């Protein structure tokens, strides 16, 4: 029996990266798509709690949702599919998802949501320029082929309890580099403007991120045109600080 895959993204159900992944993965797996009805980049794990979620079916096994990537995974698992998927694949995203991006990315957030359900998951990002990608000139087939090859290997291994984050530069040698999470820092641009009615408003942009290219990290790999595969888990505990604080407060008088 074919493995069942749930595909989603944060670029919208019409994204060429998502379409390319579907075309590649359909050859070997049973593919379901539940994705936002428009771009929902940088929404992290946001949930839609104050308005209804509307779902539209576009042919067989393809739904669009007026919500976030995390909404899409929750709806798919709890309502739309008759059984949970064997894997969740999120992407292919336009642009890299490295280091600090993991906290903001809707693409990675969908994988986080799958992880919380105990479903193995892979997030996929293409490192390309928007104009070429939007015009269909980016080689999404090549990127999807690489993602399919990685997924085939991961499914055969059968590991779970981890999130896999794959970043594919436009120029690469096809070799998969297993990497640690590196350092990439944002200082967002915040511009103050005035609308035609004289009211002040603010426009926020990502600014220019600062990279630390430490060998063996995802940042180093992508900045050097290497395919990066980073496994990571979701843990908010800091053992060192727990030990320090336990000792500190134990020594204080009651």
Write down the oligomeric state.
Answer: single chain
Q: Assign the CATH topology.
A: Stationary-phase Survival Protein Sure Homolog, Chain: A
Radius of gyration: 20 Å
Class per helix and strand makeup: alpha/beta
| N-to-C span | 63 Å
CATH class: Alpha Beta
Offer a quick outline of the entry:
This protein has 254 residues and is an alpha/beta fold. It has helices at residues 16-25, 69-80, 101-104, 106-116, 130-134, 140-157, 218-223, 239-250; strands spanning 4-8, 30-36, 55-57, 62-65, 87-94, 121-127, 163-169, 176-178, 183-185, 189-194, 200-205, 210-212, 227-232.
General description of the model:
The chain is an alpha/beta fold and 254 residues long. It has one domain (4-184, 212-250): Survival protein SurE-like phosphatase/nucleotidase (Stationary-phase Survival Protein Sure Homolog, Chain: A, 3-Layer(aba) Sandwich), CATH 3.40.1210.10. 31% of the residues lie in helices and 27% in strands. The protein is built from 8 helices and 13 strands. The strands form 3 sheets. Strands 3-4-2-1-5-6-7-13-8 form a 9-stranded mixed sheet, sandwiched between helices. Helix 1 (16-25) packs across helix 6 and helix 2 (69-80) runs parallel beside helix 4 (106-116). The longest helix has 18 residues, at 140-157. The relative contact order is 0.14.
Topology:
Layout: E1 4-8, H1 16-25, E2 30-36, E3 55-57, E4 62-65, H2 69-80, E5 87-94, H3 101-104, H4 106-116, E6 121-127, H5 130-134, H6 140-157, E7 163-169, E8 176-178, E9 183-185, E10 189-194, E11 200-205, E12 210-212, H7 218-223, E13 227-232, H8 239-250
Parallel strand pairs: 1-2, 1-5, 2-4, 5-6, 6-7, 8-13
Antiparallel strand pairs: 3-4, 7-13, 9-12, 10-11
Helix pairs in contact: 1-6, 2-4
